[in-house]
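Known limitations

Structure tokens in this collection are predictions and should be treated as such. Users comparing against experimental data should check residue numbering before alignment. To illustrate the layout, the record for Dephospho-CoA kinase is reproduced below. The input appears on top and the generated tokens appear beneath it.
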Amino acid sequence: MIVIGLTGSIGMGKSTTAELFAEAGLPVHSADAAVHELYRGKAAPAIEAAFPGSVRDGVVDRGLLAERVLGDAAALKRLEAIVHPLVREAEQTFLKDAEAKGAPAAILDIPLLFETGGEGRCDVVVVVSAPGKVQRERVLARPGMSEAKFQAILAKQTPDAEKRARADHVVETSRGIEDARRQVRAVLERILTTAHET
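Generated tokens:
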């Protein structure tokens, strides 16, 4: 089974592209969804122990937790040490299940793929991209987003140009959903064809 890493900076259309891969029949594992799940269960006790008062009714309060870790590198490292291994565990379970079901390929949707060295766990990397102007418009249209917040997020992410350069395939999302759908199908065909040839 081919493991495809899917990544892209904020506002590039990664979630929509992940849905298009799912629509094409591939199982998709979202790192963000896994974190949400962990915050509602498995990770909550350890997070409460590390950051007392950040859990309400057994569920991590993301707002309260953010107040504790944002801008504090040591606190963020403590949080990552709790969450990352649990996300990897969920990822491994997902890949085993996908392989057992006979999937030809599976998608690991990881926002910070390059930033966390995640490309080493993938056979192929697909980067979702759009021009900076389109990205900016999409992100600033989100509720609660400001220019300062957007710039702070960008500063933590590998630049788009570098992601594109390191990608095996790029899906460009500024030309509408139908165009993106065609690109996803073409990329998938190339990946599966190459795999059969090797």
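For this record: The radius of gyration is 18 Å. Residues 30 and 109 are 5 Å apart (CA to CA). Please report discrepancies through the issue tracker.
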